[in-house]
Amino acid sequence: MSVELRKHIEEIVTLNDQEFEIINSHFKSKSLKKHQYLIQEDEAVKNIYFVVKGLLKATYTDINGKEYIIQFAMENWWISDFQAFYNNVKSITNISCLENVELLSVTKENLEHICSESHKMEHFFRVKNSSGYVALQQRILSLLTTSPKERFEQFTNQYPQLLQRVSKTIIAAYLGISRETLSRLSGKL
Q: In sequence order, what are the beta bridge partners of 143?
C-alpha cells in the first residue's frame, strides 16, 4: 500500500480503506536510477506516473537539437507525456531522472476504470488535471511576458526546494535564460 498516494488523494477526497485498496490495486511500482529515462521520444506512452520519491524532468528537443525543459516532477507530482498518453500517439518528450526515483504508474485503461467506478476519483483526477492546465498556462504566460529576473523570482517563490536539488544550468534552461544570467540573478538574492 502506498501511504504517499493515499495522502495525496486525500488532499482532495476522502477514502475509506476498502476504496483505497481497490484504487491502489490498479497502480504498479517502478524504480529508476539517476540519469535513466522514464519515457523517450517516439515511444508509445501507456502510463501516467505519480512520484513517490525523487525528481524528474520532461524535455523537448527541437529539430536543431536544442533541448527545452517543459517541467519538473518531484514527490507528490504527476508526470508523463500527456499528449501521447491521452491521444495514443508517440511521445514527443523525454522524461529523465535527476535523482533516483520511486514511482507508481497507472495505465489509461486502469485510470478510466478507476474514474468510472469511483465518483471520488473522477473528481480527484478532474481537479488534478485542471490544476495542471492552470500551471501550464501560467508557465507559458510567464515565459512570454516576464523578464528573466521576474521568472527567477517566481521560480524561487514557487519551488524553493528545487534550488537545492537542481543544478543552475538546468534551472536556467527551465527559465529560458543563460547560466550566466541566472548566476547574476541568484547572486542578488
A: none
Structural domains in the chain plus CATH codes: 3-107 (2.60.120.10)
State how far the Cα of 44 lies from the Cα of 41, in Å rounded to an integer: 9
AA identity, residue 22: I
Q: What is the mean pLDDT of each successive set of 10 residues along the chain, which is 189 residues long?
A: 91 96 96 98 97 97 92 96 96 98 98 96 96 92 93 92 91 91 78
Give pTM, 2 decimals. 0.93
- What's the rounded Cα separation, in Å, for the pair 30 and 50? 10
Alpha-carbon distances of 132 from 25, 80, 119, 135, rounded to whole Å: 25, 12, 20, 5
User: Please, what sign has the CA dihedral across residues 153, 4, 60, 133?
Assistant: negative
